[in-house]
Amino acid sequence: MLQKVVLSCLLLVAGVEAWGAGDSTYLLGPGDVISIRVFGEEELTFEQVRLTDAGTVSYPFLGEVRAAGKTAAELEAIIIRGLMGDYLVDPKVSVRILEYRDFYVNGEVKSPGGYAFQPGLTVRKAVALAGGFTEWASKGKIMVIRDADPERKAEPAKLDTPVMPGDIITIDQGLF
Asked: Which of 57, 98, 141, 161 could link 172 by a cystine bridge, Cβ 3.0 to 4.6 Å?
């Protein structure tokens, strides 16, 4: 029994670490909430800041810093370069993602709207968060517009299609 509990805990930690590793490739965007910490510099540390609609964050000494389209590590490097020299000798900066931007579900679901992203989300889970399908929904006519797609082109999706922050899912009406 104890072995099963230990194994379950290890698998849970591995899953969390696997998602955390995904943060290294996750591109920040408008609506994401991040923390910025500068070791030993309380006035340069922000426990929670939401990126603006333009994907920027206002930062002391640096002004508006563009975060959209960058990873947390890339944003760290930008802040380090900006603070190094004139302000600090060797700044130690950490950027963490606290909340991912919402995704959206519309069309034939009971409660269309925006919902908080959760790692491991699929279209099936997104529809469940939106109250489930209406009686007119077509489970075969699902489209997703990827937030990461600059052309915002709708692509067909299945119930097991992964959902990412900022995506827009549309459930079409079925024929009777």
From this structure: 141
